Amino acid sequence: MPQKTLLIKFINAGIFPDTRWSSDKMYDLDSIYRKTKRKDAPVMQIPAKKFDWRHVSNVLHVLMGERPVPTIRKTLLKPDLSIQEAAKKARVTIDTPCNDRGYEGVEMMNARKSVKDAWQTSKIAYFLGGKPVQIKGGLLYWARLERLLGETLLNDFIDTVKSITSERHVPRNISAHRAIEILHDNYDLPQVQHFCQKCIKAQRTSLVHIINPKGNKDSITFHTRVGSKLNIQMVNSGPEKIIKISGTIFVPLNDELLARLSNGCGTATILEGGLAYIEGIEEWSENLVFDAEPVIEAPIQRGGAA
User: Which pLDDT score is estimated for 89?
Assistant: First the structure.
């Protein structure tokens, strides 16, 4: 057993328990016309308090700067086998309460699906002033933030973070998500307010509303306008039931895989609209993973809801 354990926290990871009435399509390489109705698509049924290793693998791929591979769709992408093997050894604790019938707290949301198979009403938690705040628009990683700000404004953003943290290599060592939180927590500094004024002038007010403690967080969105650089074209909309779970993933890693974490940005999305981030690296021990459950390989059934 490797001596080091990667701790990954995840919050508000969404599970759609029943999407058989959904009218959207799933695109892959295995369909005659390269698309499958959602109600006819494969489905992975995972019991409450359990976690599939393939979801852990996708998170690890992103954290190590690799492209994740779809779980139930055929694709030309090939997974990294060493990452997959590490994911199969992971253990998971899920903090969300459940009973004999499954998880508690089923919610309803208006879910809009796109032709690229991504839920566009997802929310990501930012820790602003020590409290989680749900922001519409999904995870802002560095490449996505550059598409929003442009090269000049992004460089101003990086320089502002650098002036606060004294970190020389901001994009390499601090995630864009965390950098936004840092600017929020230091909003009173003149350089932060100066940067926000530049964003307002460039009509990038959504980012300012996150950074400004008095900003209108409910007005923030990075994906509703069809013409947005961050947007994926919507095709339909409808109510869906969703369950949101939170917990911790423990992954034993060797030194080679630990070193590859420097290729990522420290955060990733997980399941539907959830946020996963590196909490730390600890020495492996049975006390550390006490009460954690081994990951499973859930069967994939054809002709159900995905």
Answer: 93
**pTM assigned to the model:** 0.60
| pLDDT value for 117 | 40
* CA atoms lying within 13 Å on the CB side of residue 186: 18
pLDDT tens sequence across 164-189: 998 888 887 888 888 999 999 999 99
pLDDT for 306: 34
Q: How many CB atoms lie within 10 A of CB 175?
A: 21
